[in-house]
Amino acid sequence: MIIYEIAIYLFYPPQSLRIPSLPVSFIYLIYSPMLFLQAKKSMLVVALLITVSTISAQLHERIYIQSDRNSFVAGETVWFKVYLLNSLMPGSTSTNLLLDLVDESGKRINSGSLPIFGATASGSLDLPLTLPQGIYFLRVYTNTKPDKNKYFSATRILYVFNPSGKTAPVAADPACIFHPSSGNLVVGIANTIYVETRDPLGKPAVTEGKIVNAKGEELAVFTTDLNGRGKFALLPGAGEEYTAHVRYAGGAVTKVSLPRPDETKVLLSVWEAPKARQFNVFIPENLRDGA
């Protein structure tokens, strides 16, 4: 662009510069590159200052943590507040705070995250009722590797007492319970069967399973949700035996026998119609002659 402007001034000078066109052209030829170099240097200086300022802000961000106290009993709540400072000013680099509760061996007991607003973050942490007595560390940090940079993490020592000496409940076998909608498996009609599953600690479990007969033939499948509940339909046959193969989220598989089909029961179903409530009574074939 500069060369193009120089050529215009050399060969087609303005009317006001017709007579002294050659000297003015030479002056422009000398001065224009100087202006370009000066502007380029200014841009480089500004970019360098921005980079240095950003690096300085990141390197000097420090984290400070305070809690309501440092001695607790297992089961109590720890209240804390975190401050981020950049030199003597509130820090503005990080927007998310991570936290860990670790024991003396470095084992992580609990973890979480909090948003940072106005260079501060506050929250609470519930200590488990079964937490063994000992010394623990509440560690907060803003990067993914807290052990790599001391400026990006802070630690608070917590002394935990557990006078009750309670321990975690002993794990038992997982449970899977089947509830036919009528209370029994009625022969000759599709029965709705509800499923309830629990993990070894007695909490609701997400599972998937299948129903097979004595020959190993798959007749139905089901899944349970986060509440440990699900349902499926099954058409029982007289004298048949059914088994559920239940797979838990951890990979464990259990086998549970379903209630035996009953030929002496009837099935009553009720559903809502647009203008009335309808009833349906199903009587097995072997009972119809005497009905």
- For this structure, the CATH topology of the largest domain is Immunoglobulin-like
Shape: elongated
The tally of beta strands, per DSSP, is: 18
Beta-strand portion reads 35-45%
Largest sheet: 5 strands, mixed
The structural domain count equals 3
Q: Largest sheet, order of strands side by side?
A: 2-9-8-5-6
What structural category arises from helix and sheet content?
alpha+beta
Whole-number mean pLDDT: 76
Structure description:
The chain has 291 residues and is α+β, with helices and mostly antiparallel strands. The protein contains two helices and 18 strands. The strands form five sheets. The chain has a five-stranded mixed sheet with strand order 2-9-8-5-6, with no helix packed on it.
Write a concise keyword list for the protein shown above:
elongated, five-stranded mixed sheet, alpha+beta, Immunoglobulin-like, 2 helices, four-stranded antiparallel sheet, 291 residues, single chain
